[in-house]
Amino acid sequence: MRNIREEVEVALSRVLEGTTASKLESSTLDFKEQGQQGGQKDFMRDLAGDVVCFANASGGAIIIGVDNKQSGPPAFKGTDLDSDEVRKRVYELSNPHLLVEAEARQFSGARLLVLFVQQSLDVHADTQGRARRRVATDCLPMNPDEVARLREERRDFDWSSQPSGRTLNDVSPTALEVARRSLATLTDEVRRKYARLSDRDLLAALGVVSEQGELLRAGELLFCETPLSPLLQYHYRQTPGGEPRAIERIETPLVLAFEKVLGLVQARLNQTPISLPNGQQIEIADFPQLAIREALANAIVHQDYRLRRPVFIDHSPEVFVVTSPGPLVSGVTPENILTHPPKPRNRALARAARTLGFAEEAGRGVDRMYREMIRSGRDLPRIEASFEQVQVKLVAGAPRTQIARFVAQLPEQERDDTDTLLILFRLCRSKTVTALDMAPMLQKSVDEAEASLRRLTNDEVSILEATRQTARLSHPAYRLRGEVLKKLGSAVDYQRRTMDELDRKIIPHVREYGKVNNRTLQNFFDIDVQRARDILSDMVERQLLVKISEQQRGPSVEYGPGPKFPGKRKPRTQELRLDNQRSPLPSPKKDTKTLPLPFQAGKRGKPRGNS
């Protein structure tokens, strides 16, 4: 409940600061105002129903006494409900009965009542027999199949570990051969030895055969043709909304289907080469291959096979979407999926997939998806969940190569740290962040987020620094260091400049000094050498600049005005001549009296006037 309590504290503070309460509601937080139509009896019935929704999902908190349509002090209406009476009525109006923690507190001059609801080990309904579950900010009904599935999950039932009725004679020799090849490539010596086992011993080592020699459902899915086919369906489109150009219904055992769909995706990936300062070159694909692999493995391992629907893969150069049947496992939400302990729906299948090297060994494939997308300069994965399906979406677009280049040069432990990469991702879009800002994104407590931020300020990592104004606070505001900003260049949103903005700064400089070079632009815009090179190349291509130095390579190459340089400066003599034509100087008069001399012309004698 620690994170829920922190979420309550943060939400109340933000409402007071001016955020509308409804914008802060989530799958684990709800605001309720006591003065609703229908009287207290109806209010208590609705409240008990909301408690049931949270208990059937991941638990959460309900704050009573706040108008969710308002913000600031007017949002805090207060409540006179007695905490013991509320606990009693919730218990009476839920089936099986539920006990909640009710805590009265004062905030912004109002008395509030906060109900803390634990995730239940059972499935609950209201007095009308309706079993509902919290999804995002809604309380949605569950049908009988969904209730049965949830109850099985809560009681630790594993569908994939049940007998399938199939024998070793039903196993595909090709699937076994592919499994052996996969095992033989692993770095783990123990698992490599599995590749040399007999068929029965191999299946036993994978945990997919009973002591009597009967295949479990996990073994049937991995190694046999099944009545559930097709297990995977792949569509390729040239544009996200276009007609499919390729459709593959893959009806082979999962061991073969997994490899086949990876091959289909791999054949259509485009690569972008990036050069590092040390001369090494890396390539960035439309979608990182490890992120694709984990998205597919998670869908295969965690889907609900009882729904008898295939995993659907929709692939275009811009978007890669994997949709798996069934909801997230009970207790897991998009808001906690990064930090929730591994909880596979099909444990026997998950163990076998990890042993074969198909899925993340530690069961944290979602972490890997996030890391790989950030490493390649892409946006974060988008995970959407409902009662019917879970969808993972990877979006391509032009990669932010500066991020990929910067991450590739980080120490290995930082390249592999999800917190580090998420903080870097956020600070490419926001000038500063606090632990309060990062906690929801890291899916950790505020104190844990603070520890991650503070670690990145030490001399060994030296990515962040606390702002001078907040450095003494318990939760300071952090920003990227100057040298990091320089390396990231235009990948940082608040540093990105348009072509017109660049031209407006560079052209006056060249007009005044007659030249510019790479080092000048680095200092001018606080960017790295590659970004400065790209700017100069673009201006040369547009004929605004040309090379004027004998040196042809390196940051000291000088550039001057090109054929299309605006308002090219005329020679000074020409300017003078043009000025004379426009406004001729007056001719001197012949009257000697006007001559500014101490002597009058043509006369001798002493000078006149003052000496």
Keywords:
23 strands, four-stranded mixed beta sheet, Arc Repressor Mutant, subunit A, alpha+beta, Heat Shock Protein 90, 22 helices, single chain, 38% helix, Methyltransferase, Cobalt-precorrin-4 Transmethylase, Domain 2
Write the layout of secondary structure elements.
Elements: H1 2-17, E1 29-32, H2 39-56, E2 60-64, H3 83-92, E3 94-95, E4 101-107, E5 110-117, E6 125-126, E7 132-135, E8 138-141, H4 144-154, E9 163-166, H5 173-184, H6 189-194, H7 199-206, E10 215-216, H8 217-223, E11 232-237, E12 244-250, H9 254-266, E13 271-275, E14 281-285, H10 289-302, E15 311-315, E16 319-325, H11 347-356, H12 365-375, E17 382-385, E18 389-395, H13 401-408, H14 412-415, H15 418-427, H16 435-442, H17 446-455, E19 464-466, E20 478-480, H18 482-488, H19 499-513, E21 516-517, H20 518-525, H21 529-541, E22 545-547, E23 558-561, H22 572-582
Helix pairs in contact: 2-3, 9-10, 10-12, 12-15, 16-17, 20-21
Organism: Cystobacter fuscus
Protein name: Schlafen AlbA-2 domain-containing protein
InterPro entries: RecG_C_sf, Schlafen_AlbA_2_dom, Schlafen_AlbA_2_dom_sf
